[in-house]
Amino acid sequence: MSFKSIDLPGIGTKYEIETEKGDRVAVIFKDTGGIQLYVLEKGKETPSAVELNPWEARRLGSILTGAVIEPEKEAVEVAFSALSDLRISVQTYIIGKNLKGKSIGELAIRRRTGVTIIAVSRKGKNIINPPPDFVFEEGDIVVAIGERHQLETFEREILGI
Amino acid sequence: MEQIAIALLACLILALISKSLSLPPIPFYILAGILLGNGGLKILTPNEIFEFLSHLGLIFLLFYIGLELKPERFMARGKSFLVAGLIDLKVNFLIGFLVALVLKFGYYDAFVIASAFYISSSAIAIASLIENKKLILPESETIVWLMVFEDIVLVFLVFALSMDQNPLLLILKMLAIVVLLYFGVKILKPLILKILDREDDLPAIFTFTAVIVAAAISKKLGIPEVLAVIVLAVALSTTNPKAFERNSRPFKDTFLPIFFFFFGISVELSGGIVEGLALSLVAILSKFLSGFAIGRILHKTSSAGIEIGANTIARGEFSIALAAISGSAIVSAPITLMVIVTSVVGSITGKYSSKLKEVVSSLFAQT
Predict the structure, then answer these.
(1) What is the rounded CA–CA span in Å between residue B360 and residue B309?
(2) Best of A6, A16, A29, A35 to disrupt the B interface by mutation (most B CBs within 10 Å)?
(3) pLDDT exceeding 90 applies to what percent of chain A?
(4) Average confidence (pLDDT) over B4-17
(5) Residue B100 to residue B289: CA distance in whole angstroms
(6) Does the pLDDT value for residue A69 go beyond 50?
(7) pLDDT tens per residue, range B259-299
(8) Phi-psi sector, A79: left (phi>0), alpha (psi -120 to 50), beta
(9) Which stretch of B57-66, B119-128, B156-165, B185-194 has the lowest confidence by average pLDDT?
(10) Chain A contacts of B147, Cβ < 8 Å?
(11) Burial of A101 (0-12, 13-18, 19+ CB in 10 A)
(12) Is A9 in Cβ contact with B144 (below 8 Å)?
């Protein structure tokens, strides 16, 4: 693999990777803020290209670095150097019809699974540390925190997935 | 005020139309000027305010170019930069000069025409590379750096066209202003950086004032303002060029359309249609020739050559600027026509360059 960065006056900076197979990928960070992503297969003349905004580019970047991402479900796992056996996962879920109208306390999420709901996003507004009497609506995006196996229990017992 | 309002409205509407047709706006501005001005409906006449605003457009265009001209930047590019740039210069300047002589222009006018003929439109070339998504191609780098080379040559062309006085005296005066501006900026650098860091209106006021003051001083000294402004920009690029670009861009973007429009107002196309069309045709072929040579030499393929040719055909802002700076009335009609034709043709060839490559390669396959 070869990598190079090239200064393009009036446009921005180009980063180019040639893969072992000889395909080429180029990313152009434009001075105006947008990003162009190119893919050119070996032996082909015309590249494919897409235009990304900075947010989309970051998102794509995190996918490429290997973070698990599905549109409705994404997770971050945090490990601490001083506590090597503690791995905390933070994961988002979308509330479906089955939980509509039920409160956090009523579902006894923490008692049954060990998972804590630390935030809910509803129609673009964020609610941090929702109280036990917080009632879910369909489409809420919740941020749940716990150990990996606790989150799996949460998915099974509460969300039913 | 009415005249400026009409001009601005026309430019705004035309900019919208040109963007929706994905054509460069420059020919539209010029055509609108021709249509509403002396050569057309005679609704608008050149006046002092108009001329001043249009002059601001020219000054800010050159200031903006000057900010990008950092010697260490192109020193790092090495030989390929020089090879491509020199082929482009030699081929196009020579052909342009010869065509102008054949069309019976005098030596000075032929020089002006050759300059305008040589210099491609950076704005159109760069917009085309981005819009048509060609930035992964190695030849797109060559094209971008070719534009930088042309910008450097532009400075010399502006200098040559401003030689209406004793050249030695002008050179001495230029040296004086280079030293003055360079050391002025060097001494004031901490202050300049502090002003640019502010988040209020001061950076914009400072940028505008610096440009106008440099232009005013140069006028007092009898130096062409456009040159002084380029020198100022190069000197200021040692401080925080990105901030100056950000702050001067709105001025450039606002006044430059007025410059093209105003240029159109004073052009009488009828005087040079045949010459203009002949010039346009050769101008297209000539850039294909130079592009082809560069592609063969630097990238070893004909298709790279066609790509380079196709993306450098468009002449635009600099050709008009050089025509305006030269002050020669007789060249304005043919140069205007050349800009209109090549900018439209160039943006089409830029868009369909891959089709063009197919056609050319099938032609060669048959023979």
Answers:
(1) 13
(2) A6
(3) 32
(4) 89
(5) 18
(6) no
(7) 999 999 888 877 788 999 999 999 999 999 999 999 999 99
(8) beta
(9) B156-165
(10) 9-10
(11) exposed
(12) yes
Report yes or no: A110 and A116 within 8 Å, Cβ to Cβ: yes
Complex ipTM: 0.75
List CB contacts (< 8 A) between B85 and chain A.
none
The end-to-end CA distance of chain A, in Å, is 41
Q: What angle, 0 to 180 degrees and rounded to 10, lies between the N-to-C axes of helices B79-102 and B273-294?
A: 150
A71-159 to CATH, choices 3.30.70.260, 3.40.50.300, 3.30.70.1450, 3.40.630.10: 3.30.70.1450
- pLDDT reported for residue B315: 95
Percentage of the residues of chain A whose pLDDT score is greater than 70: 94
Surface of A (6-65) touching B: CB under 8 A: 6-11, 14, 16, 24, 26, 28, 30, 36, 38, 40, 45-47, 49
Structure tokens at B68: 């990008």
pLDDT at B37: 85
Give the domain extent around B157.
2-366
**Alpha carbon distance A10, B65 (integer Å):** 10
Mean pLDDT of A83-103: 84
pLDDT recorded at residue B366: 63
Count A/B contacts: CB-CB distance under 8 Å. Answer: 50
CB atoms within 10 A of CB B150: 23
Residue B362: pLDDT band by 50, 70, 90 thresholds? confident
Structure tokens at B320: 């008009």
Distance CA B284, CA B276 (A): 12
- In chain A, what residues touch B76 (CB-CB under 8 Å)? 7
Please answer yes or no on whether A49 and B73 come within 8 Å at the CB atom. Answer: no
CATH number of the domain at B46, please.
1.20.1530.20
How many domains does chain B divide into? 1
Place A60 in a pLDDT band, splitting at 50, 70 and 90.
confident
For CA atoms A149, A152, A153, A158, give the dihedral sign: positive
Identify the pLDDT of residue B165: 67
Q: What six digits make up the tokens of B301?
A: 């393929």
d(C-alpha B274, C-alpha B173), whole Å? 41
Domain segments of chain A as ranges: 2-63, 71-159
| Interface contact flag, B73 A7, Cβ < 8 Å | yes
The verdict on a CB contact (< 8 Å) between B126 and A11 is yes
Quick one: tokens of A33? 């803020």
